[in-house]
Write a structure and sequence with these properties.
- The complex is a heterodimer.
- Chain A contains 11 helices and 27 strands.
- By secondary structure, chain A is an alpha/beta fold.
- Chain A has helices at residues 26-39, 53-65, 78-87, 150-164, 183-196, 208-217, 228-236, 256-266, 352-360, 394-401, 430-444; strands spanning 4-5, 15-19, 22-25, 45-48, 69-72, 92-95, 106-108, 124-125, 130-137, 143-149, 173-176, 199-201, 222-226, 245-249, 268-276, 280-286, 294-295, 299-303, 308-312, 319-320, 323-327, 333-338, 342-345, 348-351, 367-371, 384-388, 414-416.
- By secondary structure, chain B is mainly alpha-helical.
- Chain B is built from 4 helices and no strands.
- Chain B is globular.
- The chains are: A alpha/beta, B mainly alpha.
Chain lengths: 448, 90
Amino acid sequence: MRETPLIGPYDVDDVLAWDQEGPRTVRQFLTDAASLAESLPDRSTALNLAANRYDFLVGFAAAIMRRQVTLLPQSRASQTLLRIAREFPGSYALTDRGDAIEGIDSVSIQLRGDQAPWPMDIPRIPPDRVVAVAFTSGSTGRPVPNKKTWGALTAVAQATGVRLGIKAGDRLSVVATVPHQHMFGLEASVMLPIMHGLAMHAGRPLFPADIRSVLADAANGWMLVTTPLHLRACVSESISMPPGGLILSATAPLPRNLAQQAEEHFQAEVHEIFGFAEAGSIAERRTIDGDRWHPLEGVHVAQDASSCLVQAWYLPTPVPVPDRITVDTDGTFVVHGREADQVNVAGHRISLGDLNQLLLKIDGVQDGVFFLPEEGAGLVTRLMAFVVAPGKTSEEIQQKLRAYVDPVFMPRPLVCVPSLPRNATGKLPRESVNELARQWLEREGDGA
Amino acid sequence: MEQSGASLLERDLAKLIVQTLKLKIDPAAIEPEAALFGEGLGLDSIDALELSLAISQTYGYQLKSSDPQIKTIFSSLRALAAAIEKNRTK
């Protein structure tokens, strides 16, 4: 298969990234990446923890130049990082804050800051080379690795651009509120811009006022890569946004009325991506147009009696879809909901069964169950847990659980109970847990 | 339990934090000088976003993370209350 270039259609002095410290040109980027590549240790895998999106890209590119695979941890929780480092022995961490992770060798991403003489060869990469590994939360607290080839990342970036009507030379500025270590973040805020010659914002605005000021700085129009959570925050604050953009949301379903409000608030089209770490982005829709998802070019979703599988030339084997979907004869599909056991909290997916297993690993916990309440007024609905652990306090269990569970899945609250309503066969029917939670919320709930 | 020397605004803000984030703790148990995020109350960036909306609605102060002081502002109940006192519009 043909090798393809590391970055797309740019001129050497085009701005590739910018933030409050100023613009970074393509020339600077290639110099920074080549110089970092020379100083990387001779290892096969690197945990890229850079918080700055440009630094992350420099680290990612340098690793590619050295034929190293970039590991993308779902969180910076030290236990998560150590577990990944154990799975990939000899890994080192790439950081941009000079922070060290105990137990893992760290290399700080140093930027040259000067400019290389041109011309410099843009590295070319074979499409079947594995360049990154994204992790999903699995049972027993072990992160499950999902290998990503260069071909998969570039194909998704190109196909997403086609669906959104982005053309090389648009020179849009891509601003993202999502982390680039998350699969959607990597695809939409790193790969999409560099494959289309766009400029990326190197930071990660959080509050609505931050988002507004970054968008206002974007020359030639903006594209905001974000989540329903951030859109809801922007819409509920009456901060006016600079017009002339495009919004791309993912990680959780976007309610149609919120999409409508966001379109009016931002004076921009709101598009959504459907995807998951195992397959990457697979489909797109403009939310206000309806429920139907349009597969990205080259993606085929096949339905048989028991399951749905995603096929694409860049996926080595068909990948099962973790949601219940119905595929139409024209290939478009509708998503009905998650498979029974799956929950999604702020864009992170995990199985409740796996979480329950983790609870039982804690010393002194005899029984326990996680529960996702109905959506409330908050931006995010948090999990709660009921635990049987005589002699232990809720704080003690939370403390222990923190080592196994990503922060986003930490139960809020964790309630200690004398027993769980298990039936005669020892099963814990969903309805009984619902009832337990309903009673508890009625008693202790929002009356705070 | 009385918070050691907590001001009225600090006590109100503690209540707002507990209510907004459904923390199920006694607002008076939040020590004015203790860390809110990370090791302290264990709050994360989603909490920061929820909290910023509640603060904006209650006090008319729109937080910005590009503010060079943001880490200080969010470091404790006392620091957050001081920033609100300085910037509030209602």
